[in-house]
Amino acid sequence: MKLNVCERAANIDFLINVPVLKGHCQTKITCALKNMKGLIPNTEKRHFHAMGLHEPIAHLNAGLHQDFVVVDNICGDLDFEDGGNPVVMNRIWAGTDPVLIDSYVCQIMHYTTKDVPYIELAEKLGVGSTDLKNSHIVYCEENARKELPKSRKVVELQDAVEEVESCSACYGYLIPALEMLKNDGLFEKLDTKICIGQGYRGKTGKLGVGACTCKFEHNVKGCPPTENQIYDFLKQYILGENK
User: pTM above 0.90?
Assistant: First the structure.
């Protein structure tokens, strides 16, 4: 797989990756492997989404080796990468195998590596190992063993979405907007799936978010539209004002 990376990143002698452990609206988690997207140009990020995120993330890590990983698990949002629902853990942990680290993240966030496909894809490409059973984890204090609370806000909200090759910005604004609708008691009243993503360009449908669904009968304009714009539009749609 051919990927464009920043020139300086390709010439680094020793790469230290410092990801924040967070939930993610599209990949469920973001940590060591996905954080490497910071080393590609913005134009390539859109290409990543067009390819489905998981495979290009795995191949990016096969092409760019990270020598040391320091994970910021001090206060991250376990649902959304943009924050808003922080969980204080006050932990920092480190390692040299990004695949093993992300496998551990899955475990403490109550996922399996199969829930986050790029992890096992990276393992197959020789980036690292998912074998937590035979790994050696050192806890500097007993409090470091505590599990993260189980949170599934994103999974529940995603049921209302039909996503095809969407960008993180657009999708990242949609999920908080849906949460606001849920808080208002309106989320359950949606009568159709919300379509989003580059895969809908030129296609028609009923309800879409973003410029890629501009031909839909009901469309939230913008590239990307903000969460408040999405919320206001969907609220009006549910209440019958946009139908």
Answer: no
